[in-house]
Specification:
This protein is an all-alpha fold and about 100 residues long. The protein is built from three helices and no strands. It is rod-shaped and about 100 Å long.
Length: about 100
């Protein structure tokens, strides 16, 4: 009798249709940033419809991304003020040095 390969009832990840795969971190980030290729968006959104886990993951990541961009915006504003102060300081120092 021919030996049968042992089946564990597990399908290799590569064999799963795209919509049954969980989002990986890169896909989630691209999606949140609006950088996903059009073909990927359709698959991701179809998967999100059927997968509560990924919806939770994505909403957590969304909160993270938006809080990060707030931090980044505050940081840019502060940096701009700092650069303006440094430039003003250099200007004053330059004027004083010319005297
Ligand atoms: Zn999922």
């Amino acid at each position: 009798m021919e030996e049968q390969p042992i089946s564990h009832g597990i399908i290799a990840l590569d064999e799963l249709p795209e919509i049954h795969r969980h989002l990986d971190a890169e896909q989630a980030e691209r999606y949140l940033m609006g950088n996903s290729p059009a073909g990927e968006v359709a698959n991701l959104e179809e998967h999100l419809l059927i997968c509560a886990d990924c919806r939770v993951e994505l909403s957590n990541a969304d909160i993270y991304v938006s809080s990060m961009s707030e931090v980044a915006a505050r940081f840019r504003k502060r940096t701009a003020r700092l650069m303006a102060a440094v430039a003003a300081g250099l200007l004053v120092a330059g004027i004083l040095a010319l005297r």
